[in-house]
Amino acid sequence: MKTNFYHLKTMVGAVSLAFTLASAGAVTLTNVPMQGGMLMPAVSYNAASSVLSVNLPAETPQLTPLLASNLGDCFDPADPWYNCLDPSRQGLAFSRRYGFNMATGSDPLPAGTAIWIRKLSGSPGLEFYRYRSMAPKAWEPIFGTAGTTNALQWNQVMFHPGVTAPPGTNTYTATFELFLLDTATGTPIAGSSSGLLVFNWSTVPDGRPALAVAPMIAIAWPSATSSNWVLEAADSLSGSPWTLVTNTAVLLDGQPAVLLEPQEALRVFRMRLVP
To answer: pTM for the whole thing?
Structure first.
């Protein structure tokens, strides 16, 4: 594997990666873009059958990172979604295009009931947030994200949750259902479920150079060591020949060192004075 930035601090490759972004004329965004037009799952209640139904859009929305949709822009560090979405932080791909909405012509809900939305399953890495752009702004985990409950009550007002996943070229799926809850007893009303609703997303890469990490070992010696010393290695201390380590030395925390493949950790090393 390759990497364009690494720093080894210990003998067994502790690696830190960094990526710095800068762009002239960058804009600081104070809200979270929808990343396209609205896709509205229309929710209806049929009083005759006492069942909820949902009309799902056919389009598959893309989860798009800010680096792909708004190159050079960033989010305000004071906003709650900054750490999750800003390219200098997690830089996740996101979308708010799916939004639940009550369909025109839906029958009124029975008295003493409320609609609940429950996530039954979801792809690993897919996360959901309740978004509010007005003060007090919100980017709150929901639907099982960060250990939250997988269900929430919906007040029938248009609701566009934020959905995130790592940038890339992957597909994600989540399965939901809507049902009526008896607000007096706190129990679901039998037979009211919408059935299984499958939501799909695809992701977009963010254009960053791919970073990969190769585990290495570092053999270091005091910086004051004279150039008359050379590093040698042997397979064992019992009669194995010593050979010169020819890797070019680099500086690690101010000390000369050579970086070697992990399997070299099984060998023994010594410094030999050259007359």
So the answer is: 0.72
